[in-house]
Amino acid sequence: MFNFRRTLSAAALSLGLMPAATNLASAADLPVKAPKPAADLPFFLVIDDRVTYSYIFSGTDPGVFSRRPDGSIDGKTAKQVYSFTHFDIWAYGQNFFTISMYKSDHNDPASPCSNVGVTITGAPATCAGATEIYGLFRSTFGWNQIFNTKAFSMGPLNNISFEVGMDANTENNFLAPAKRDVVAGLQFEFNLPYKGYINVSPLMYYEFSNHNAFDQCGLFGPGVPGVTCLIDGNTKFKPTWAVEVNYYMDLGFLPENMQYFSISGRAGWYGKKGTENEPMAFNPVTNISTAVELNSEPIRLTFDASKAFWGPKYSHFVDVWVAYRYWQNKFGLDHAKSVVCNVAAGVSNNSCTEESLYSGISVKF
Questions:
Q1: Confidence of residue 41 (pLDDT cuts 50, 70, 90)
Q2: Cα-Cα-Cα-Cα dihedral sign, residues 237, 66, 107, 324
Q3: Residue 179 and residue 236: Cα distance in Å, rounded?
Q4: Which has the closest alpha carbon to 156: 127, 188, 131?
Q5: Least buried of 16, 73, 110, 214, by fewest C-beta within 10 Å?
Q6: What's the rounded Cα separation, in Å, for the pair 248 and 101?
Q7: Structural domains of the chain sorted by starting position, each given as residue range(s) with its CATH number in brackets
């Protein structure tokens, strides 16, 4: 979760409400005017809504690749991303929500293509790039706020919070994923220099529903439900652990006339969640165990364009940024062993590890 520092001064609310202490004898003869009650604090202390357009130069989608004219494998696909993000702070915690649409190029085709240039029947076809909708929600409840104390602030530790959240997606490729997961655990918030922060969240992760059209009974023959196929193609994974980390820091050490830059980043590790096609039985060739997944953006450099051109009053109204994106064992698929990720033993199709430049512009409204 993101963390905005706030200072609410109770003294400011009380200015003008204290009666004068001088000439007490005559004050008793004056009409008494009741002080106005202090205004209630708003329910939301901070609300930040943004729209973003970004571009992933070398994205991937597991199992999707094409052959170059020289025979080499191209598992990369460029993706345009359109996002809406909401963040707020209220009396007891923080809420973060984002929903994004990812539009792939032709190297990641939409259904009925099952791979580039071919349908599931083997017939040639040119399909449009796939479109994915992905939503994520995280909410925290701070212990300092719940218990009305500062006991959970010490040294660099700013707060400890309960955290809950969920993810959901859908995509119009042949696989037709429909991921639904929940997370729950704690968040530890630490201060960094220059008004920065780093949050560390150990969590329980449970992907209780998804879909894989390739697991559908009847697609490759009758099959044995629960063993070699799933009746409706719906998968359900085992609960596992997760650790999510995010940070932000202004580059306050720069000269004052260059203090328009900040760095941020995130990383999420997700434990093994059963077999690739859970709850189907383990198979050493076609249904191996999942691997620990790392989904990260280690560093993002942001230029506060609105502050640079319009002044501090408009800080972070328009941000232009560039980032590095790294995603290994995408969706839990073992990039070194899975048949989804390799065309032969030890020969990767380059689709299960994503390393890409990522750039965009965000506008606050």
A1: low
A2: positive
A3: 9
A4: 188
A5: 16
A6: 24
A7: 48-364 (2.40.230.20)
